[in-house]
What does this fold into?
Amino acid sequence: MNLGSPDSPSVKDVKKYLREFLMDEKVIDIPSFPRNLLVKGIIVPFRSPKSAHAYQSIWTDEGSPLMVNTSRLQEALQAICPEPVEVCMRYGNPHPSVAFDRLQQQVDRLEEVILVPLYPHYAMSSYETAVEYAREVHLKKRYPFKLTVLPPYYIDPHYINALSNSIRPFLSQPFDKLVFSYHGVPERHILKSDCTGEHCLKVADCCHVASKAHRVCYRHQTLETTRNVAEMLELKADQYEQTFQSRLGQDKWLTPYTAARLKELPGEGVKHLLIACPAFVSDCLETLEEIAMAGKEIFLAAGGESYTVIPCLNDHPDWVSTVNKLIEPYR
It folds into this structure.
């Protein structure tokens, strides 16, 4: 299960997609009435043409990159997985019910479906909303099979190995720094997810102080992914840093902001930059347009000399193998 994509890069389809995405109470977590006014009255009308242009800049002959990359992962996994594999999206198509129906058609008296959210880290606006949506569909349509959900795998050794192996070839070229850019979330999401109510963003160095809150803390989990990958790649402390991208609105989001750091780094002597986006396992609008295009423009305009974006895992052989290994305990 992945995030989803508009059916086409037309303004009409982008409007439809943005309405569904932004009306999700786990994405814009304010009461329904003001959310309706904000999303349908302000954000969607004004943002849709700009977003449509962004989608048009990355759209391929095969369609949406996120859809294409997810389908390629499905095909590669199916080649080594004895169980049938289907794809669904949190927003847009294919709907979870489509995947569930197809699996029922392929397996007589289907007993269990393993849901693999394509989000390595727990966040209420990604992993949580996707899982809850799939469970709602499963319950509402009264499917007879059991739905089992794969937990976040942000420090699973197989995932860390696959991510490290996808990055390693790029380290052979001259570079001053590797930036790990993760999708950002508002700080209030971190506070809301804190099951203890007294740890996240309240305790000094909270992400490095043991707590039950870490089980669902996005910030902690991204930092752990970065730390583990950096160790596997034997990076020195001054060779990498972590940032957060895709800020929306004026509220405070997790910092440092990717765009701000891309503007500042050349002035700090970083002329040759590598950038990876570990929160995404499939290249999409946020990696191909926001980072590869807009990010490059910011960095070079600020005095940077070379800017290399490392592709997401997509259908990398080690990632395909990792997904197969992640579901092995449930077979």
Q: What stands out?
A: The mean pLDDT is 97. The chain has three domains: 2-58, 65-152+317-330, 157-309.
